[in-house]
Amino acid sequence: MKTLPDLSYGPRPHQALDLILPGAPRAVVIYAHGGGFTKGSRKETTAVALAAQLAPLGIAVVSVSYRLGGTLRDLDAGDRARMRRMMAASARFGLRLHARLYGPAFACALLDLGQAVAALRTGAVAPDVKGLPITILGMSAGGIAALSLAHPPRVWAGRLAQPDAVLAVSAAMVQPWCLRPGGPPCVMLHGPVDRIISPQDARLAATTAQDRRVDLLLIVTDTPGHVPQLTRLIHGTAPDGRPGLSLLTDLVARTGVC
Length: 258
Known about the structure:
Layout: E1 2-8, E2 16-21, E3 27-32, H1 46-54, E4 59-64, H2 77-93, H3 104-122, E5 134-139, H4 141-150, E6 165-169, E7 186-190, H5 199-212, E8 216-220, H6 228-235, H7 246-254
Parallel strand pairs: 3-4, 3-5, 5-6, 6-7, 7-8
Antiparallel strand pairs: 1-2, 2-4
Helix pairs in contact: 3-4
């Protein structure tokens, strides 16, 4: 296992990632950190903890940075108008989230994350992972961006590289009207009580997915809180008693990895 830090996936300074590479990689897991699209860092220890368990399985781990604190000024004129319409659509759908979690800062992070997926898939970042299936593990804001990347707005679909699967922890689908059959399999892991992202917002996505026959599963644990869900995933057990990371490795297996 070797670490390749500070690899660029785009021209901007923040468009960088760290890659932890096993000897013979057969799949990729991207970790997208949380922080409400205003803070957070790819340098947190989560990726290292993931790699300790995933690298022996031949799964490369990527910790990615994305734009923080993006505003309408960071989008082109056409995207600014689209963003306003999409924010209105999200609010009408019944989201309880603060608007900043589905506004311009979210859009900037989404566009960056899509660019990172494309760079990894094509081998532009590292030839060792070219063409490998990609699963995104997104925490909080990272999970919000990951879910929208799996089911992007039609106006951006051609500009965004989709992952092959998503596990979103303590997150929400902020554009549930974009959920469509045929997308990547998605799992949402949420606690029964979460003061940052309401379980009701997670249930909104699950209910919409069920109505539209979309491959999205909501798992509600018996552990309250926001960050404790990630801790339980990596170091604890799943609700069915298996190791928590089995929720992630099951998704990786569904991407076609033998």
